[in-house]
Specification:
The chain is built from 12 helices and 9 strands. The protein is an alpha+beta fold. The strands form 2 sheets. Strands 2-1-5-4-3 form a 5-stranded antiparallel beta sheet. Strands 7-8-6-9 form a 4-stranded antiparallel beta sheet, sandwiched between helices. It is flat.
């Protein structure tokens, strides 16, 4: 039981000392024989310690109680040991409540952060799909390759550690699709910009007025919206990661007819999607999972495992396995039709055994049991019930790897 979870920083201790000192000074001023107000009909001391401990934590609460104890020892004939110990027990209780309350808030905060990020990724993927289909409708004859396919090709280029080539091909894609004639893509490094790729002789200028506005607002800025700003660029688009700008696309020249808000918003979405794909590639490089697992499944499994390790936010992995290929095929169809957008399935076969694994983000195993019951009921109607399955928490890594048959792959 982690009772002694101290308040982060020294401000909690300082504020508790000031508040307790003011309380004792007021008590001494009103009644010099009872500065701690322990003989009052109202439990003022308990209220004070409750406020300090619940707000700041156990450490500042104990410090305040010790200060009160010193005053009690100095100004009272008999030291009220029973009262002091009872107040100490209350401080421990308040401190425990403070710890668990803040832990719950922390878990909820990181769950919300994961869901927001997942939603943001899905929005970008949807928008990339939409503009890709629009592109196909307009230019299928001359450009049969969709935008999403082009971005996927660039991601594979990046995965082969051809980073410079991937960045350059993305700028070529912007030029062909949106008539961006000259621009520079750069990474923010403190108060400098490190160019990643550029067209013609465009340079990345950190001190440019439009760049500074984009960093300040953390959103795309355009020279048309800032007519009184002197800048070498006509648009600056930042890419955010965890609320901070990490990369910038600075556009210097575009044809007049192509330079409009819709085009620039589309470029901003594609830029975000591009760097999301690059980050996904970097993460997949570090994951020690077999290649036959789907990349999306492996990526989300890795992210949720980190979430569980750092913040104890549970997710559940459900694994079905069978030696019957027909049962596996039917189960795969039924499961994919019943899943929600957040849940991620992967299907594979090893050594004659067919597996279907489903990742349930931020869901405990009791909720997954209901899903299993529905699947078994559906299969019972087909007279196909010979099915093994198991649910695992993500911290049970050795167990689920062994059950999934990937321990030695």
């Amino acid at each position: 039981m982690r009772l002694f979870k101290l308040y982060d920083g020294s401000s909690g201790y300082f504020e508790s000392l000031i508040l307790t000192s003011l309380y004792l000074a007021a008590g001494y001023y009103l009644n010099p024989t009872d500065p701690c107000a322990i003989k009052s009909d109202i439990p003022v001391l308990t209220i004070l310690l409750a406020i300090i401990t619940l707000y700041h934590g156990l450490g500042p609460g104990v410090v305040s109680l010790l200060l009160v104890g010193v005053v009690m020892k100095t100004y009272y004939t008999d030291f009220e040991i029973d009262l002091f110990l009872s107040q100490f027990v209350l401080v421990l209780i308040f401190g425990e409540f403070h710890y668990y309350w803040h832990r719950v808030i922390g878990e909820q905060r990181y769950e919300l952060k994961y869901l927001n990020r997942k939603f943001d990724e899905m929005v970008k993927a949807f928008y990339a799909l939409k503009i890709s289909h629009d592109q196909l409708e307009k230019m299928y004859v001359t450009k049969p390759m969709s935008l999403r396919n082009a971005l996927e090709t660039i991601r594979h280029e990046y995965a082969k550690k051809k980073h410079q080539s991937a960045y350059a091909k993305f700028l070529v894609l912007l030029h062909k699709s949106y008539a961006v004639e000259s621009c520079v893509l750069a990474q923010l490094n403190g108060e400098t910009l490190d160019p990643l790729a550029a067209t013609e002789n465009v340079h990345a200028d950190y001190d440019d007025a439009l760049v500074q506005k984009a960093l300040e607002k953390k959103m795309p800025v355009y020279i048309a919206d800032n007519p009184h700003t002197e800048s070498a660029y006509i648009a600056v688009i930042p890419v955010l990661e965890e609320g901070r700008a990490q990369w910038l696309l600075m556009i210097e020249k575009m044809p007049f007819l192509a330079y409009n808000k819709d085009t620039l918003v589309t470029i901003a979405i594609l830029l975000q999607y591009f760097f999301y794909q690059m980050q996904k590639s970097r993460t997949l490089e570090s994951i020690q999972l077999p290649s036959f697992l789907d990349e999306t499944f492996a990526y989300e499994l890795h992210r949720l495992t980190l979430l569980e390790k750092r913040f104890h936010v549970d997710s559940t992995l459900l694994v079905f396995k069978t030696q019957d290929p027909l049962l596996h095929h039917l189960l795969d169809q039924k499961v994919r039709g019943a899943l929600r957008s957040l849940e991620i399935p992967v299907s594979y076969s090893l050594h004659g055994v067919h597996y279907l694994a489903i990742l349930f983000p931020l869901v405990d195993d009791s909720a997954v049991e209901g899903f299993v019951a529905r699947m078994r009921e559906i299969l019972a109607r087909e007279n196909l019930e010979k099915l093994d399955y198991a649910t695992f928490k993500l911290k049970q890594r050795k167990l689920y790897r062994r059950y999934m048959g990937i321990d030695n792959e």
